[in-house]
Design goal:
The structure holds three protein chains of three kinds.
Chain A: H1 16-19, H2 22-36, H3 42-59, H4 63-87, E1 92-96, E2 99-102, H5 103-129, H6 132-142, H7 153-182, H8 193-199, H9 201-224, H10 243-266
Antiparallel strand pairs in A: 1-2
Helix pairs in contact in A: 2-5, 2-10, 3-5, 3-10, 4-5, 6-7, 7-9
Chain B: E1 2-12, E2 20-31, E3 35-39, H1 46-53, E4 61-66, E5 69-70, H2 78-84, E6 85-88, H3 101-111, H4 116-129, H5 146-158, E7 164-168, H6 176-193, E8 196-201, H7 204-210, E9 213-218, E10 221-226, H8 228-232, H9 235-240, H10 247-257, H11 269-280
Parallel strand pairs in B: 3-8, 3-9, 6-7, 7-8
Antiparallel strand pairs in B: 1-2, 1-4, 4-5, 9-10
Helix pairs in contact in B: 3-4, 3-5, 4-5, 5-6
Chain C: E1 4-16, E2 22-36, E3 41-45, H1 52-59, E4 67-72, E5 75-76, H2 83-89, E6 90-93, H3 106-117, H4 121-134, H5 150-162, E7 168-172, H6 180-195, E8 200-205, E9 216-221, E10 224-229, H7 231-235, H8 238-243, H9 250-260, H10 272-278
Parallel strand pairs in C: 3-8, 3-9, 6-7, 7-8
Antiparallel strand pairs in C: 1-2, 1-4, 4-5, 9-10
Helix pairs in contact in C: 3-4, 3-5, 4-5, 5-6
The chains are: A mainly alpha, B alpha/beta, C alpha/beta.
């Protein structure tokens, strides 16, 4: 199940979206997510969907990779939908037993589902087209001004990029430990919650010990390679805006303007 | 009593574009009491194969029978199977978790639902079988040396009293002495209890010294399955797949090329010594 | 003067029980004198727990001596002002390939050291390219390290060290977690670096096949350097090595047991050809 989480998984290919500066992609994703919550009409969603489709097309990442990220939040999605569907007061549409579906409820739950879906796919586009390293570089640079107020921006981004590198390694390790314990008759599946929690001990102890060991080794290896924090460091791949990045910002603004326009026009319909 | 693999295939990431054959149409029988060496380079499918033996992985094609019963048929007791076919993974760090060695070895038998007394008896017996010194029974398993950790890991599986013991590279990372000690222990255990042993290894030298049958894996298929001397005769094919015959075989070939009338079907030091002494007339 | 010099190096640490109370003192390295010349290939052989890795970590200023001194290119590792310079001069490759690769793309990992040293961007790229070519991993520069084999990962780690332009490279059991093919790959690269690029190599290992090509072998046991000499001199002492939990090459072992059976053979035979010579079989 863990492997279904697409967030943080880079899809290697050549495309305009891949080549964009990570700062553009980060800003773009954030603005896109905000934009999803700006409007309440279907026309607005149409524009948002269109924009997303074009970006996905340009990224050359197969669509099923985007959808894969959805699997992980399917439960959350259904839960939110059900919650909104049954608990929004308003004009009743259908009624059975103690549950009532209202027109407003239906509307809100559908909107919520669309928003969440677009949100996940939108951020998947970013993570699928940007190497995690590039992403953390972008964040470091975008949050650069925070350094002045003593926020350890470099350290945080270094931590993130290391965490991202070790996630697949630790996942594989979890799988191996699980198998080793199952081979000794461990049972991770049956029993009530307490029993299940107890059954996790033979998995978690070796995993934690290994993670700490790795952390220790890695810290030593980094020091051995002269790592001493962000000061005095140069960059192998410094971020520099190219023409296409300015162009992309232009497209983003155009998209936002189009949405505003829709909202304005939509309010008359 | 035997494990039978009937046209077993396994495909990784089935149904995705990354699908790859890890095992291709494997037919094997592992009868009782054999000492089998399973050889192949990294990625040859040997680790995938051993995980099929105790049902950790289910084949995507074919069937596996344990004592005549299909292990993936409905109603087959997998837990029971895992206690019969004991699998020890490469890194003991992946299984040691208890506060002390003895409690850790008790984990397996405890999971089988045995009484406390029986559990402890088995743990004690298993630790004795691997030659683990009694004065360290109540030490934390994390403070042990690599070789001792390995012993505890093997004992942890032996305590379930398996009929078949599968060891995935039990000597990886050990120094030469530590490696010999572990392998000698396994051989002694085999002689003492008659248990079936499947030893996964990269090292031809280790395998040549102990086993009576070698299975060579390459790209998910069985390349050779025979007695050691026969397998090592195919040194050119072995080299082509990134393996080699034991060094002794090559040494004897060099001697022969240089004019010494020695036989080259030699795999161990003892055999080589005997052969050279024979030619020298001593 | 040698590039690496230790004088009566002692390293002790306090063993503690679970509550953190001192239980005793362990002397992991015991009065070791080491002198490695520029361009030399020195191997340190020893079983697990013989103190060889602890010794190695002193040279990169990861550990500091309890007594005695460690000089790298004439600089004392205990002087804080020199630490970063020493770490750049004495590059270090560790045992576990997964736990020393920081980058998520091969080339970014190789660039990590130079970035830390403040090397200008353009030069980082040049260094990354030349280092990856030196270890034969240039074709993999855009790959994720997670998809590489153990031997390939170690070669990337070596490239990461070369990119810092060190004067010597210390390899701390770089092959202990690899399969035989991976081991050969790594040793081939190490030998080439020593031969072609004339990098000083200090190789720490417990595999005797890997030390045959060294100029000099030092055998460690219980923190002490107990044997020292050329590979042939070392492997002549089969019984001694066995008592130190070490192996000798198979052919050396064979010659040794033939010797014991009364066959007149010299000590320290290292190849099958030498054995044929010694047995009196002429070439061709």
């Amino acid at each position: 199940m863990l492997r279904d989480i697409t967030l943080g998984q880079y899809y290697q290919t050549e495309s305009v979206i891949h080549r964009l500066d990570p700062r553009v992609k980060l800003t773009g994703t954030i603005l896109y997510i905000i934009s999803l919550f700006l409007f309440n009409q279907f026309t607005g969603y149409l524009v948002a969907a269109l924009f997303l489709c074009v970006v996905i097309r340009l990224s050359k990442v197969p669509f099923r990779y985007m959808v894969r990220g959805m699997k992980a939040i399917l439960f959350l999605l259904l839960f939110t939908m059900a919650f909104n569907l049954f608990l929004t007061p308003g004009e009743p549409l259908v009624q059975f037993w103690k549950l009532t579906i209202t027109r407003e409820g239906l509307r809100i739950s559908v909107f919520m589902a669309i928003r969440l879906t677009f949100l996940i796919i939108g951020s998947s586009v970013m993570t699928l087209t940007t190497t995690p390293n590039h992403l953390t570089d972008g964040m470091e640079k975008l949050m650069g001004p925070l350094k002045k107020v003593r926020v350890p921006v470099h350290e945080v981004s270094m931590m993130m990029s290391i965490a991202l590198r070790f996630i697949p390694i630790l996942m594989e390790e979890t799988d191996k430990i699980m198998k080793a314990q199952i081979a000794r008759g461990a049972d991770f599946e049956s029993g009530n919650l307490v029993k299940k929690a107890k059954a996790m001990v033979p998995l978690l102890v070796p995993l934690f010990i290994s993670a700490f060991r790795r952390a220790n080794d890695l810290a030593m290896a980094m020091e051995a390679r002269c790592y001493q924090g962000g000061a005095g460091r140069t960059k192998m791949k410094p971020l520099q805006y190219a023409r296409r990045d300015y162009l992309a910002y232009g497209v983003l603004i155009a998209y936002l303007l189009a949405l505003m326009l829709m909202k304005y026009v939509g309010s008359f319909i | 009593m035997a494990i039978v693999l009937d046209h077993v295939s396994y495909i990784y990431e089935k149904d995705t574009e990354m699908a790859a054959f890890a095992l291709k149409d494997i037919c094997l029988t592992i009868p009782d009491g054999q000492f089998i060496g399973l050889i192949g380079h990294t990625g040859s499918g040997k680790s995938t194969l051993v995980q099929h033996l105790n049902g950790l992985l289910a084949p995507t094609g074919g069937h596996i029978y344990y004592n005549g019963k299909d292990i993936h048929a409905d109603g087959f007791d997998k837990k029971e199977l895992r206690s019969r076919v004991g699998l020890v993974f490469q890194y003991p760090e992946h299984q040691l978790f208890e506060v002390d060695v003895f409690t850790d070895v008790c984990f397996g038998p405890k999971n089988l639902g045995l009484s406390r007394k029986e559990t402890e008896l088995r743990a004690f017996e298993a630790l004795r079988q691997v030659g683990f010194p009694e004065e360290y029974f109540y030490q934390s398993p994390f403070d042990l040396s690599g070789g001792q950790k390995r012993r505890v890991a093997i004992a942890g599986v032996l305590a379930m009293k398996p009929d078949v013991l599968v060891l995935d590279e039990p000597t990886a990372g050990l120094d030469p002495k530590g490696r010999d000690e572990i392998l000698d222990r396994i051989a002694a255990l085999k002689a003492e209890t008659g248990i079936t042993v499947v030893l996964v290894s990269h090292s031809m030298e280790d395998i040549a010294k102990y086993v009576d049958r070698i299975i060579v894996m390459n790209r998910g298929s069985v390349l050779f399955d025979d007695v050691p001397a026969e397998v090592f005769r195919h040194d050119a094919e072995l080299e082509a797949v990134g393996l080699a015959a034991p060094q002794m075989t090559y040494i004897m070939r060099t001697l022969r090329r240089r004019g010494m009338e020695v036989g080259t079907d030699v795999t161990t030091l003892e055999e080589a010594e005997r052969e050279i002494l024979r030619v020298l007339g001593k | 003067m040698g590039i690496i010099q230790t004088n009566k190096l002692v390293f002790e640490y306090i063993r503690r029980d679970e509550e953190g109370n001192a239980e005793g003192i362990t002397r992991a390295v015991d009065e070791v004198d080491l002198d490695v010349k520029q361009g030399e290939f020195v191997a340190i052989l020893g079983h697990n727990g013989s103190g060889k890795s602890t010794l190695a970590k002193h040279i990169n200023a990861i550990l500091y001596p309890t007594e005695g001194t460690v000089l790298v290119d004439g600089q004392d590792t205990r002087e804080e002002a020199h630490v970063w310079e020493i770490r750049q001069k004495a590059g270090m490759v560790f045992q576990n390939p997964d736990n020393q690769i920081i980058g998520q793309v091969v080339e970014e990992d190789v660039g990590f050291g130079p970035e830390n040293m403040g090397v200008p961007t353009k030069e980082i790229w040049e260094r990354v390219e030349e280092s990856l070519k030196a270890v034969g991993m240039y074709a993999f520069r855009k790959h994720s390290p997670n998809k590489l084999s153990g031997g390939q990962k170690q070669r990337v780690s070596i490239a990461g060290v070369i990119a810092m332009h060190p004067k010597c490279i210390i390899l701390d059991e770089p092959t202990a977690m690899l399969d035989p093919n991976g081991r050969k790959e790594v040793i081939r690269v190490v030998r080439a670096l020593n031969h072609v690029e004339e990098v000083t190599i200090l190789l720490i290992t417990h595999y005797m096949e890997e030390v045959i090509y060294a100029d000099r072998v030092i055998v460690m046991d219980q923190g002490r350097a107990v044997m020292q000499g050329t590979p042939r001199e070392i492997f002549s002492q089969v019984e001694r090595l066995k008592s130190l939990r070490l192996d000798v090459p198979q052919v050396t072992m064979l010659a040794h047991s033939l010797q014991k059976k009364g066959v007149p053979l010299p000590d320290g035979i290292l190849t099958a050809e030498e054995l044929a010579d010694a047995l009196g079989y002429r070439k061709g």
